[in-house]
Amino acid sequence: MITYPGSQDDRDALWALGALDAEAISVWHEEHELPDLDAVVIPGGFSYGDYLRCGAIARFSPATAAVCELADAGGLVLGICNGFQVLCEAGLLPGALLRNESLRFVCRDVPLTVERSDLAFTRRCRLKQRLVLPVKHGDGRYLPPPDLDPSQVVLRYLENPNGSVENIAGVCNEAGNVMGLMPHPEHAVDPLLGSDDGALLLASLVDAARDRVLAAY
Questions:
Q1: Which parts of the chain are beta strand (E)?
Q2: Counting Cβ atoms within 10 Å, is residue 132 exposed (0-12), middle (13-18) or buried (19+)?
């Protein structure tokens, strides 16, 4: 877990991963090297106060540079909300996140469909499975590049809360080891919260990271 000044959901994500039997730790943004990690999660929030542009300053932090090295080597990286913005700013994911079409902050549960079930982040899901996850953002309108490969779309909104092009809620890189999404799976791991669909995504990541460790032995 990468924590920046202004990160808001890092503790929530740590708790959610721990509830799924993962050994999750927090890495401060000033660290130039990552510890021996099997996967990285960049959480939601307002890194560096979201000054200039969401994720624009976090993109230059030492820890983000280390995450880029991990991703380039094939490591698993998941960016949630502000983490998605950071990954786009860092060039690890295509496209950009813009101000919501309504120009208003949106905070509610939204239904989604799974467009890829063969990734490390979605292996517990079924293709076209309907998920319900909460969103909470003011800059979540995804603008893909003109040449975006349709296979890079991982999640789509069934009810678009922000004006994202083609209802895109989450994408991956071409290699499939980096994913970003605007909805918050860490806030949907317990039925008491209204949905535990987020556990499918996070547990998929935990499974994939654990499989990589076993394969190394």
A1: 2-3, 27-28, 39-42, 76-80, 96-98, 106-114, 130-137, 141-143, 153-157, 168-172, 178-181
A2: middle
Say which of 54, 89, 115, 184 is annotated catalytic.
184
The answer to whether residues 44 and 9 touch, using CB atoms and an 8 Å cutoff, is: yes
Neighbours of 104 (CB within 10 A): 10
Name the active-site residue from 68, 81, 88, 125: 81
Task: Look at the chain and report how many structural domains it folds into.
Answer: 1
Query: Is there a catalytic annotation at residue 81?
Result: yes
* Active-site residue flag, 54: no
Catalytic residue selected from 115, 125, 186, 187: 186
Tell me which residue range forms the domain holding 13.
2-215
Per residue in 29-60, pLDDT (tens digit) is: 999 999 988 999 999 999 999 888 999 999 99
Over the stretch 4-34, which tens digit does the pLDDT of each residue have? 999 999 999 999 999 999 999 999 999 999 9
Q: Could you tell me the CATH number of the domain that includes residue 13?
A: 3.40.50.880
